[in-house]
Amino acid sequence: MTMSNTAAQSAFADANTQVFSNQQIANYLRVGYWNDTGRGQRKFDVEPGDTLTFNFQGLTSKGKAFAEKALELWSDATGINFQSSSSSRADIIFDDNDSGAYAYSTGTGDGIINQSFVNVSRSWISRDSSNDVSNYSLQTYIHEIGHALGLGHGSNYNGSATYGRDNDYANDSWQASIMSYFSQTENTYVDGSFGYVATPQIADLIAIQDLYGTPTNTRAGNTVYGDNGTAGSLMNQITQDRGAITYTIFDSGGYDTLNYSSGGSNQIIDLREGTFSSVRGRENNLIIAEGTRIENAIGGRGNDTLIANDADNTLTGGEGADTFLFFLVGEQQASQDMITDFEDGVDTIRFVNQNSNGEAAAINFDLLDIIDNGADTTIGFGGQEIVVTNVGAANLDAADFIFA
Fold first, then answer.
1. Is 311 left (phi over 0), alpha (psi -120 to 50) or beta?
2. CB 235 within 8 A of CB 133
3. pLDDT tens-digit series, residues 341-382
4. Which residues of 27-46 are buried (b: 16+ CB within 10 A; e: fewer)?
5. Confidence tier at 10 by pLDDT (50, 70, 90)
6. How many Cα atoms are found within 13 Å in the side-chain-facing hemisphere of 97?
7. Which residues are marked as active site?
8. Structural domains in the chain?
9. Rounded mean pLDDT, 285-296
10. Could you report the per-residue pLDDT of 248-258, keeping only the tens digit for each?
Protein backbone atom coordinates (compact mmCIF):
# COMPACT_ATOMS: atom_id res chain seq x y z
CA MET A 1 0.00 0.00 0.00
CA THR A 2 1.31 3.45 -0.92
CA MET A 3 0.66 6.39 1.37
CA SER A 4 -0.67 9.60 -0.09
CA ASN A 5 1.50 12.70 0.14
CA THR A 6 -0.77 14.11 2.85
CA ALA A 7 -0.68 10.91 4.91
CA ALA A 8 3.09 10.67 4.55
CA GLN A 9 3.57 14.27 5.66
CA SER A 10 1.28 13.63 8.64
CA ALA A 11 3.28 10.55 9.64
CA PHE A 12 6.55 12.50 9.46
CA ALA A 13 5.00 15.30 11.50
CA ASP A 14 3.93 12.79 14.16
CA ALA A 15 7.46 11.40 14.28
CA ASN A 16 8.78 14.89 14.85
CA THR A 17 6.38 15.64 17.71
CA GLN A 18 5.92 12.45 19.76
CA VAL A 19 8.54 11.99 22.45
CA PHE A 20 9.41 8.51 23.68
CA SER A 21 10.33 7.71 27.25
CA ASN A 22 13.58 5.85 27.80
CA GLN A 23 11.56 2.68 28.37
CA GLN A 24 9.67 3.17 25.09
CA ILE A 25 12.95 3.60 23.23
CA ALA A 26 14.29 0.47 24.93
CA ASN A 27 11.19 -1.48 23.94
CA TYR A 28 11.69 -0.45 20.33
CA LEU A 29 15.35 -1.46 20.37
CA ARG A 30 14.48 -4.83 21.87
CA VAL A 31 11.21 -5.69 20.06
CA GLY A 32 9.81 -2.96 17.82
CA TYR A 33 12.66 -2.75 15.35
CA TRP A 34 12.65 -6.48 14.71
CA ASN A 35 8.87 -6.50 14.27
CA ASP A 36 8.99 -3.53 11.88
CA THR A 37 11.61 -5.29 9.75
CA GLY A 38 9.78 -8.62 9.68
CA ARG A 39 12.01 -10.38 12.16
CA GLY A 40 11.65 -11.52 15.74
CA GLN A 41 13.13 -10.48 19.06
CA ARG A 42 16.41 -12.29 19.75
CA LYS A 43 18.97 -12.87 22.49
CA PHE A 44 21.63 -15.32 23.58
CA ASP A 45 20.46 -17.84 26.17
CA VAL A 46 22.57 -16.40 28.98
CA GLU A 47 22.16 -14.23 32.07
CA PRO A 48 24.47 -12.14 34.28
CA GLY A 49 27.45 -14.21 35.37
CA ASP A 50 27.38 -16.47 32.30
CA THR A 51 29.99 -16.47 29.54
CA LEU A 52 29.87 -15.80 25.80
CA THR A 53 32.89 -16.60 23.63
CA PHE A 54 34.23 -14.40 20.85
CA ASN A 55 36.73 -14.94 18.06
CA PHE A 56 38.49 -11.84 16.74
CA GLN A 57 41.42 -13.48 15.02
CA GLY A 58 40.23 -11.88 11.80
CA LEU A 59 40.93 -8.37 13.11
CA THR A 60 44.06 -6.23 13.10
CA SER A 61 45.59 -5.24 16.43
CA LYS A 62 43.74 -1.93 16.21
CA GLY A 63 40.43 -3.65 15.54
CA LYS A 64 41.04 -6.01 18.44
CA ALA A 65 41.70 -3.08 20.78
CA PHE A 66 38.41 -1.41 19.83
CA ALA A 67 36.52 -4.70 20.11
CA GLU A 68 37.97 -5.43 23.55
CA LYS A 69 36.94 -2.00 24.86
CA ALA A 70 33.43 -2.38 23.45
CA LEU A 71 33.05 -5.86 24.92
CA GLU A 72 34.17 -4.60 28.32
CA LEU A 73 31.50 -1.91 28.22
CA TRP A 74 28.80 -4.41 27.28
CA SER A 75 30.04 -6.69 30.06
CA ASP A 76 29.57 -3.81 32.50
CA ALA A 77 26.03 -3.34 31.17
CA THR A 78 25.00 -7.00 31.23
CA GLY A 79 27.17 -8.86 33.71
CA ILE A 80 28.02 -11.30 30.90
CA ASN A 81 31.66 -12.41 30.70
CA PHE A 82 33.23 -12.35 27.24
CA GLN A 83 35.97 -14.92 26.70
CA SER A 84 38.35 -15.02 23.74
CA SER A 85 38.32 -18.17 21.61
CA SER A 86 39.97 -19.39 18.42
CA SER A 87 36.99 -21.55 17.52
CA SER A 88 34.90 -20.90 14.42
CA ARG A 89 31.95 -21.81 16.62
CA ALA A 90 32.51 -18.95 19.05
CA ASP A 91 29.34 -17.11 19.98
CA ILE A 92 30.48 -13.87 18.32
CA ILE A 93 32.77 -13.84 15.27
CA PHE A 94 34.57 -10.60 14.38
CA ASP A 95 35.97 -9.83 10.94
CA ASP A 96 36.99 -6.89 8.74
CA ASN A 97 36.82 -8.46 5.28
CA ASP A 98 33.85 -6.49 3.95
CA SER A 99 33.47 -2.75 3.49
CA GLY A 100 31.45 -0.77 6.00
CA ALA A 101 30.14 -1.96 9.35
CA TYR A 102 27.35 -4.42 10.05
CA ALA A 103 26.27 -7.30 12.26
CA TYR A 104 23.85 -10.19 11.95
CA SER A 105 22.80 -13.25 13.91
CA THR A 106 21.82 -16.81 13.02
CA GLY A 107 19.46 -19.29 14.63
CA THR A 108 16.94 -16.71 15.83
CA GLY A 109 13.77 -18.55 14.83
CA ASP A 110 12.90 -19.36 18.44
CA GLY A 111 14.21 -16.04 19.72
CA ILE A 112 17.55 -17.54 20.77
CA ILE A 113 20.72 -16.49 18.96
CA ASN A 114 22.97 -19.35 17.88
CA GLN A 115 25.86 -17.20 16.63
CA SER A 116 26.47 -13.54 15.78
CA PHE A 117 28.84 -11.99 13.27
CA VAL A 118 30.34 -8.48 13.41
CA ASN A 119 32.20 -6.85 10.52
CA VAL A 120 33.94 -3.47 10.79
CA SER A 121 36.26 -2.74 7.89
CA ARG A 122 39.86 -1.66 8.32
CA SER A 123 39.22 1.57 6.44
CA TRP A 124 36.35 2.39 8.83
CA ILE A 125 38.75 2.61 11.78
CA SER A 126 41.84 3.85 9.91
CA ARG A 127 41.66 7.48 11.07
CA ASP A 128 41.16 6.83 14.78
CA SER A 129 43.58 5.81 17.49
CA SER A 130 42.60 2.76 19.49
CA ASN A 131 44.14 4.50 22.52
CA ASP A 132 41.35 7.10 22.44
CA VAL A 133 37.72 6.75 23.50
CA SER A 134 36.11 9.81 21.89
CA ASN A 135 35.91 8.57 18.31
CA TYR A 136 33.51 6.98 15.86
CA SER A 137 35.44 3.71 15.66
CA LEU A 138 34.82 2.75 19.29
CA GLN A 139 31.22 3.94 18.92
CA THR A 140 30.81 1.68 15.88
CA TYR A 141 32.09 -1.39 17.69
CA ILE A 142 29.76 -0.76 20.63
CA HIS A 143 26.86 -0.27 18.18
CA GLU A 144 27.54 -3.44 16.19
CA ILE A 145 28.01 -5.57 19.31
CA GLY A 146 24.66 -4.17 20.45
CA HIS A 147 23.16 -5.77 17.33
CA ALA A 148 25.07 -9.00 18.00
CA LEU A 149 23.47 -9.16 21.45
CA GLY A 150 19.95 -8.53 20.16
CA LEU A 151 19.31 -4.79 19.85
CA GLY A 152 17.89 -3.14 16.75
CA HIS A 153 18.14 0.45 15.55
CA GLY A 154 16.43 3.43 17.14
CA SER A 155 13.80 3.59 14.38
CA ASN A 156 12.98 1.64 11.22
CA TYR A 157 16.11 2.45 9.21
CA ASN A 158 19.25 0.66 8.15
CA GLY A 159 22.33 1.87 6.30
CA SER A 160 21.33 5.54 6.16
CA ALA A 161 18.64 7.81 7.56
CA THR A 162 17.52 11.43 7.55
CA TYR A 163 16.21 13.10 10.69
CA GLY A 164 12.70 14.42 10.16
CA ARG A 165 11.93 11.68 7.67
CA ASP A 166 13.09 8.35 9.07
CA ASN A 167 12.83 8.81 12.84
CA ASP A 168 9.76 7.40 14.60
CA TYR A 169 9.95 9.85 17.51
CA ALA A 170 11.43 13.28 18.12
CA ASN A 171 14.15 12.28 20.59
CA ASP A 172 15.72 9.53 18.47
CA SER A 173 19.38 10.45 18.99
CA TRP A 174 22.75 9.39 20.36
CA GLN A 175 21.82 11.02 23.66
CA ALA A 176 19.45 8.16 24.47
CA SER A 177 20.84 5.30 22.40
CA ILE A 178 24.04 4.28 20.67
CA MET A 179 21.77 2.34 18.31
CA SER A 180 20.39 5.62 16.90
CA TYR A 181 21.61 7.04 13.60
CA PHE A 182 21.24 10.69 14.66
CA SER A 183 23.88 12.70 16.48
CA GLN A 184 23.01 15.36 19.04
CA THR A 185 23.31 18.04 16.36
CA GLU A 186 21.57 16.16 13.54
CA ASN A 187 18.57 15.77 15.83
CA THR A 188 17.00 19.22 16.06
CA TYR A 189 14.76 18.32 19.02
CA VAL A 190 17.35 17.48 21.67
CA ASP A 191 19.75 19.95 23.26
CA GLY A 192 23.35 18.86 23.52
CA SER A 193 26.86 19.28 22.22
CA PHE A 194 28.08 16.90 19.55
CA GLY A 195 29.83 13.99 21.16
CA TYR A 196 30.86 10.50 20.12
CA VAL A 197 29.14 7.84 22.21
CA ALA A 198 31.62 5.99 24.43
CA THR A 199 29.22 3.66 26.31
CA PRO A 200 25.86 2.01 25.87
CA GLN A 201 23.42 4.83 26.57
CA ILE A 202 20.49 5.05 28.96
CA ALA A 203 17.90 3.39 26.70
CA ASP A 204 20.42 0.75 25.59
CA LEU A 205 21.01 -0.20 29.22
CA ILE A 206 17.29 -0.59 29.86
CA ALA A 207 16.87 -2.67 26.70
CA ILE A 208 19.84 -4.97 27.23
CA GLN A 209 18.96 -5.51 30.89
CA ASP A 210 15.36 -6.29 29.93
CA LEU A 211 16.85 -8.99 27.69
CA TYR A 212 19.52 -10.44 29.99
CA GLY A 213 18.88 -9.16 33.51
CA THR A 214 20.57 -6.47 35.59
CA PRO A 215 24.08 -7.13 36.91
CA THR A 216 24.76 -6.50 40.58
CA ASN A 217 28.56 -6.39 40.50
CA THR A 218 29.34 -3.50 38.13
CA ARG A 219 31.42 -1.14 40.26
CA ALA A 220 29.43 -2.21 43.33
CA GLY A 221 31.90 -0.60 45.77
CA ASN A 222 32.57 3.06 46.52
CA THR A 223 33.50 4.49 43.13
CA VAL A 224 34.81 7.86 41.96
CA TYR A 225 34.04 8.84 38.36
CA GLY A 226 36.03 11.59 36.66
CA ASP A 227 39.07 13.19 38.27
CA ASN A 228 41.06 10.89 40.57
CA GLY A 229 38.78 8.13 39.32
CA THR A 230 38.56 4.63 40.76
CA ALA A 231 36.13 3.23 38.16
CA GLY A 232 38.69 1.06 36.38
CA SER A 233 41.06 1.95 33.55
CA LEU A 234 38.51 2.20 30.72
CA MET A 235 35.75 4.01 32.62
CA ASN A 236 38.32 6.35 34.15
CA GLN A 237 39.54 7.21 30.67
CA ILE A 238 36.00 7.86 29.44
CA THR A 239 34.97 10.07 32.36
CA GLN A 240 38.26 12.01 32.25
CA ASP A 241 38.19 12.58 28.48
CA ARG A 242 37.97 16.23 27.39
CA GLY A 243 37.10 15.56 23.76
CA ALA A 244 33.78 15.40 21.94
CA ILE A 245 32.29 12.61 24.03
CA THR A 246 29.05 11.53 25.66
CA TYR A 247 28.47 8.63 28.02
CA THR A 248 26.14 7.02 30.55
CA ILE A 249 27.24 5.91 34.01
CA PHE A 250 25.81 2.61 35.24
CA ASP A 251 26.76 1.57 38.76
CA SER A 252 25.50 -1.32 40.90
CA GLY A 253 26.01 0.20 44.34
CA GLY A 254 28.35 1.69 46.89
CA TYR A 255 28.87 5.30 47.95
CA ASP A 256 29.81 7.01 44.71
CA THR A 257 31.13 10.37 43.53
CA LEU A 258 31.16 12.44 40.35
CA ASN A 259 34.39 14.44 40.49
CA TYR A 260 34.81 17.14 37.84
CA SER A 261 37.02 19.38 39.96
CA SER A 262 39.60 20.04 37.23
CA GLY A 263 37.03 21.70 34.97
CA GLY A 264 37.19 25.44 34.37
CA SER A 265 33.85 25.82 32.57
CA ASN A 266 30.43 26.39 34.12
CA GLN A 267 29.23 22.84 34.74
CA ILE A 268 25.89 21.29 35.69
CA ILE A 269 26.30 18.11 37.73
CA ASP A 270 22.91 16.47 38.28
CA LEU A 271 22.89 13.47 40.60
CA ARG A 272 19.33 12.41 39.76
CA GLU A 273 19.03 9.19 37.79
CA GLY A 274 17.90 9.54 34.19
CA THR A 275 19.05 13.15 33.93
CA PHE A 276 21.70 14.94 31.89
CA SER A 277 24.75 16.73 33.22
CA SER A 278 26.96 19.17 31.34
CA VAL A 279 30.63 18.66 32.15
CA ARG A 280 34.05 19.60 30.77
CA GLY A 281 32.68 22.42 28.63
CA ARG A 282 30.01 20.38 26.83
CA GLU A 283 26.23 20.40 27.09
CA ASN A 284 24.18 17.39 28.23
CA ASN A 285 27.00 14.93 27.65
CA LEU A 286 26.77 12.85 30.84
CA ILE A 287 23.78 10.73 31.85
CA ILE A 288 23.19 8.73 35.02
CA ALA A 289 21.46 5.45 34.19
CA GLU A 290 18.03 4.72 35.57
CA GLY A 291 18.39 2.72 38.77
CA THR A 292 21.89 4.09 39.42
CA ARG A 293 22.41 6.16 42.55
CA ILE A 294 25.39 8.49 42.84
CA GLU A 295 25.71 10.22 46.20
CA ASN A 296 28.35 12.93 45.84
CA ALA A 297 29.34 15.67 43.41
CA ILE A 298 32.45 17.83 43.16
CA GLY A 299 32.53 20.86 40.88
CA GLY A 300 35.44 22.78 39.42
CA ARG A 301 36.65 26.32 38.93
CA GLY A 302 33.60 27.64 37.09
CA ASN A 303 30.19 28.79 38.28
CA ASP A 304 28.78 25.30 38.71
CA THR A 305 25.29 24.03 39.52
CA LEU A 306 25.18 20.89 41.66
CA ILE A 307 21.78 19.17 41.84
CA ALA A 308 21.01 16.79 44.69
CA ASN A 309 19.00 13.57 44.48
CA ASP A 310 17.02 11.83 47.24
CA ALA A 311 20.06 10.12 48.80
CA ASP A 312 22.32 11.64 51.44
CA ASN A 313 24.50 13.81 49.22
CA THR A 314 27.79 15.57 49.84
CA LEU A 315 28.21 18.52 47.48
CA THR A 316 31.43 20.46 46.91
CA GLY A 317 31.18 23.34 44.48
CA GLY A 318 34.85 24.23 44.18
CA GLU A 319 35.87 27.70 43.08
CA GLY A 320 33.45 30.10 41.41
CA ALA A 321 29.93 31.27 42.26
CA ASP A 322 28.17 27.94 42.65
CA THR A 323 24.51 27.00 43.04
CA PHE A 324 23.40 24.06 45.17
CA LEU A 325 19.97 22.95 43.97
CA PHE A 326 17.53 20.81 45.94
CA PHE A 327 14.21 19.54 44.60
CA LEU A 328 11.62 19.04 47.33
CA VAL A 329 8.88 16.86 45.86
CA GLY A 330 5.83 15.86 47.89
CA GLU A 331 6.45 13.82 51.02
CA GLN A 332 9.87 12.64 49.94
CA GLN A 333 12.11 10.37 51.94
CA ALA A 334 13.99 12.27 54.62
CA SER A 335 17.63 12.83 53.74
CA GLN A 336 20.60 14.68 55.14
CA ASP A 337 22.80 16.45 52.64
CA MET A 338 26.02 18.34 53.16
CA ILE A 339 27.52 21.38 51.44
CA THR A 340 31.23 21.43 52.21
CA ASP A 341 32.42 24.76 50.81
CA PHE A 342 29.58 27.29 50.82
CA GLU A 343 30.89 30.84 50.51
CA ASP A 344 28.57 33.49 51.90
CA GLY A 345 27.84 36.23 49.40
CA VAL A 346 29.19 34.16 46.50
CA ASP A 347 27.37 30.83 46.41
CA THR A 348 23.62 30.23 46.41
CA ILE A 349 21.31 27.56 47.81
CA ARG A 350 18.24 27.03 45.67
CA PHE A 351 15.06 25.17 46.61
CA VAL A 352 12.43 24.02 44.14
CA ASN A 353 9.38 22.79 46.05
CA GLN A 354 6.69 20.75 44.30
CA ASN A 355 3.71 18.79 45.56
CA SER A 356 3.06 15.18 44.56
CA ASN A 357 1.36 16.41 41.36
CA GLY A 358 4.46 18.30 40.28
CA GLU A 359 2.89 21.68 41.00
CA ALA A 360 4.80 24.47 42.72
CA ALA A 361 4.30 24.54 46.48
CA ALA A 362 4.97 27.35 48.91
CA ILE A 363 8.44 27.76 50.34
CA ASN A 364 10.37 30.81 51.49
CA PHE A 365 13.14 31.77 53.86
CA ASP A 366 10.80 32.13 56.84
CA LEU A 367 9.67 28.49 56.47
CA LEU A 368 13.19 27.14 56.85
CA ASP A 369 14.47 25.81 60.16
CA ILE A 370 17.99 27.20 60.52
CA ILE A 371 19.92 25.72 63.42
CA ASP A 372 23.35 26.87 64.55
CA ASN A 373 25.59 23.90 65.32
CA GLY A 374 28.61 25.98 66.23
CA ALA A 375 30.95 25.82 63.27
CA ASP A 376 28.22 24.40 61.01
CA THR A 377 24.61 25.24 60.23
CA THR A 378 21.70 22.86 59.62
CA ILE A 379 18.90 23.95 57.30
CA GLY A 380 15.68 21.96 57.68
CA PHE A 381 12.51 21.80 55.63
CA GLY A 382 9.92 19.05 55.14
CA GLY A 383 12.04 16.25 56.60
CA GLN A 384 15.15 17.18 54.63
CA GLU A 385 18.24 18.53 56.34
CA ILE A 386 21.19 20.26 54.73
CA VAL A 387 24.34 20.74 56.77
CA VAL A 388 26.42 23.69 55.61
CA THR A 389 29.88 23.13 57.01
CA ASN A 390 32.12 25.91 58.35
CA VAL A 391 29.35 28.51 58.05
CA GLY A 392 27.57 29.89 61.12
CA ALA A 393 23.81 30.49 61.10
CA ALA A 394 24.37 34.23 61.59
CA ASN A 395 26.07 34.36 58.19
CA LEU A 396 23.05 32.94 56.33
CA ASP A 397 20.18 35.18 55.33
CA ALA A 398 17.52 35.35 52.62
CA ALA A 399 20.05 36.72 50.12
CA ASP A 400 21.84 33.36 50.14
CA PHE A 401 18.75 31.52 48.88
CA ILE A 402 16.61 31.26 45.77
CA PHE A 403 13.11 29.79 45.99
CA ALA A 404 11.82 28.78 42.55
1. beta
2. no
3. 999 999 999 999 875 565 666 789 999 999 999 899 999 987
4. bbbbbbbbeeeeeeebbbeb
5. very low
6. 9
7. 144
8. 22-197 (3.40.390.10), 215-402 (2.150.10.10)
9. 98
10. 999 999 999 99
Q: Which amino acid is at 252?
A: S
Answer whether 271's CB lies under 8 Å from 310's CB.
no
**Rounded CA gap, 152 and 142, in Å?**
13
pLDDT mean over 304-330: 94
SS3 readout for the chain: CCCCHHHHHHHHHHHHHCCCCHHHHHHHHHHHHHHHCCCCCCECCCCCCCEEEEECCCCCHHHHHHHHHHHHHHHHHHCCEEEECCCCCCCEEEECCCCCEEEEEECCCCCECCEEEEEECCHHHCCCCCCCCCCHHHHHHHHHHHHHHCCCCCCCCECECCCCCCCCCCCCCCCCCCCCCCCCCCCCCCCCCCCEECCCCHHHHHHHHHHHCCCCCCCCCCCEEECCCCCCHHHHHHHHCCCCEEEEECCCCCCCEEECCCCCCCCEEECCCCCEEECCCCCCCEEECCCCCCCEEECCCCCCEEECCCCCCEEECCCCCCEEEEEEECCCCCCEEEECCCCCCCCEEEEEEECCCCCECCCCHHHCEEEECCCCEEEEECCEEEEECCCCHHHCCHHHEEEC
Query: Which residues are CB-contacts of 135 (< 8 A; sequence separation ≥ 6)?
Result: 128, 129, 196
In sequence order, the 6+-apart residues with CB closer than 8 A to the CB of 6 are none
Read off the pLDDT of each residue in 144-155 and give the average, rounded to a whole number.
99
pLDDT tier at 15, thresholds 50, 70, 90: low
In angstroms, how far is CA 117 from the centroid of its own chain? 27
